[in-house]
Amino acid sequence: MPGKFTTALFGGLSALVLMAAAAQAENPTKVKIAGVLSAGKEAPWETSFINSMNRVIAARPHGLDVEVEYTENVYDNAEQVFRTYAETGEYDIIFGDTAYADAIEKVKGDFPNIMFVMSGSGNRGLGDNAYWVFVHAHEPAFVMGEMAGKLTKSNVVGAVSTYPAEDTNDQLNAFFAGAKSVNPNVKQKITYIQSWYDPTKANEATSAQIAAGADMIYQMSGTFEVCEQKEIGCFGNYVDMSAFAPKSVVASATVNWDPQIDWVIDQWWNAKTTGAKFDAPKDPKWFTWKEGSGDVVVGQGWAAKLPEDVKKMMDDSIAAIKSGAKQVELDLSEVKSD
Amino acid sequence: MLADLFQTTVIVSLLAATVRIATPLLLAAIGELVAERSGVYNMGLEGTMLMGALTAYLAADASGSLWVGVFAALTTGALMSLLFAFLVITLQVEQIVTGLAMNLLGSGLSVYWLRAAFKGQSQIPATPIFDNVPIPFLSELPVIGPVLFDQKALTYLALLSVPAVWWFLYRTRPGLDLRCAGENPRALDIKGLSIAARQYGAVVFGGAMAALGGAFLTVASASRFAPEMTNGRGWLAIVIVIAGMWRPVPILVATLVFSFLDALQLQIQGIGIAIPYQLMLALPYVVAILALAVRRRHAGAPAMLGVSYRRE
């Protein structure tokens, strides 16, 4: 009899210990992320994504070990890449940094416990376990536009971009709006090279804009060889471009994905710790400059020669946007040349 | 607005851009012409160009010399096409399929090699690019000077390759033999001349030229390699050979027309003229299809192009 009692007691105790251990196990210590990149790591868009991811890894959100694997140049066969990652069963979050809605829609239902992420334009809200983030750098682009408007001597301000898309239009519209807000005589010129990354073509597009009179050009395709040769003023985006083009880069609108990645990990953490199902909002999640979405970084070569009034205007404008005193319109419509 | 297009500075910029854009296309197309004249379709141009662009960049970065980069690209192109030649000439594997496989090889290997070369670095280094080499006196001429005589060395080489290849194909005995391999290989065989030797030579030359075209992108245009940076230029070169009806001078003309349309659409956008530039981007391909349709059968293609020779 006592034997039975002891057994029961031990049994009960070990069950309690097990339950406690299980409760402990519910709080994950590690999150494994697959980064599905649309282009090579050199493309500025991807570089900004990877840099942000590295900062998040170092910051250990929720005390998590964040582990990331990347696959590059995924565009046409995205579904296969998402599915392969999912089927390994090793990944908690499969994070695509471009328009992957079509691929994710086909895969997400088969893996309800995995979180899928898509980014930017060309997507649609899918809900459930498919999260949608957006990176808008229109606020820094507006400030750079103001600088271009002040610095131009020809009153022709240009931009060389990739494709017309909502996540390039936002910056282009803001850039030109900034230029015109300080200099109403500015004429805007826009060239699309119809490729996400083709430096040779982007250089030719830049030469063509210079021939058309532009002396301040927003290089959204990350190419600066002609800017350096012709010593005009150029603007970079996604990462600080002045390392590649010290003479010509006036400033760069840098992009931080940190708030988006943190938000994604928070959503994952909430679902995992509460046992709730993933329930993604249908609208894209994005963050303002004030919330840490990016910055304006003045180029090394231009920092010394930037006129005082331009520097002051830049600082004032940044302060006003961050405090909320100045609103920069988020305009996603397609840009046209004047 | 349209008047802006006809200013001298704009016209000069437009024509100089045409010649720059034409350079890699012309190098690859003239090389492919020689290969196809010998009876071999090399559909692997895109991958070969990409590998040329990569190895030129890596070698230039490692050695500090752009010419070493050029040499590396030539070697890579020759080696890649030697492999291709072995498969399609010696083993007689289907040419189109093998060419496509070479593209996949170039696409995958170039990224893998790039990663292996700069392991753990967040940014790959920038290399310098070739300066223009203005030709004395000629570069001073108005309009034509900056357009034709103030370009990079590789551009002159590309332009000179047209008369050189024409002379070789149509005015020399080895050139005649090479064309015979594409038109009537049995005639060569009966005379006891090696078809395979001529085809190997032609294919290796073509591969080296394609890689040189790729190298132009990294040593003369952009300061860094980027995955898939050839962006369809290899395919366009193949279209150009068809549009140029397998003859050197028409190929030069076709290259210049295609490049001009590309330069024009960029300039039209830059000025802001409201013409849909997508139309101009499509135009070269429309022209090529029309050229084929009008000329009907083969349109000047070597009679035995793509057909492996088997002794009966």
Structural summary, described in words:
- The complex is a heterodimer of chains A (338) and B (312).
- With 338 residues, chain A is α/β, with parallel strands linked by helices.
- Chain A is built from eleven helices and eleven strands.
- In chain A, strands 7-6-8-9-10-11 form a six-stranded mixed β-sheet, with helices on both faces.
- Chain B is an all-alpha fold and 312 residues long.
- Chain B has a single domain (23-132, 148-295), classed as ABC transporter involved in vitamin B12 uptake, BtuC.
- Chain B is built from twelve helices and two strands, in the order ααααβαβααααααα.
- Chain B has helices at residues 8-37, 45-63, 66-90, 95-117, 144-148, 153-171, 173-183, 185-190, 195-219, 233-243, 248-271, 277-295; strands at residues 133-134, 150-151.
- The model of chain B has no long low-confidence stretch (mean pLDDT 92).
- The A-B interface holds A 39-43, 47, 50-51, 72-73, 158, 189-195, 197-201, 203-205, 207-212, 214, 223, 225, 243-244, 336-338 and B 4, 9-10, 12-14, 16-17, 20-21, 24, 111, 114, 122-124, 126, 129, 217, 221-229, 231, 262-263, 266-267, 269-272, 274, 277-278, 281.
- Percent of residues in helices of chain A comes to 40-55%
Quote the average pLDDT of chain A.
Answer: 90
Q: How many domains would you count in the coordinates of chain A?
A: 2
What's the arrangement of strands in the largest beta sheet of chain B? 1-2
Q: What is the helix content of chain B?
A: 55-70%
Largest sheet of chain A: 6 strands, mixed
CATH topology descriptor of chain B:
ABC transporter involved in vitamin B12 uptake, BtuC
Q: Biggest β-sheet of chain B, characterized? A: 2 strands, antiparallel
Write the element-wise H/E pattern of chain A from the N-terminal end onward: HEHEHEHEEHEHEHEHEEHEHH
Domain module count of chain B: 1
Oligomer: heterodimer
Envelope shape of chain A: elongated
SSE order of chain B, one letter for each helix or strand? HHHHEHEHHHHHHH
Q: Tell me what portion of residues of chain A adopts beta-strand conformation.
A: 15-25%
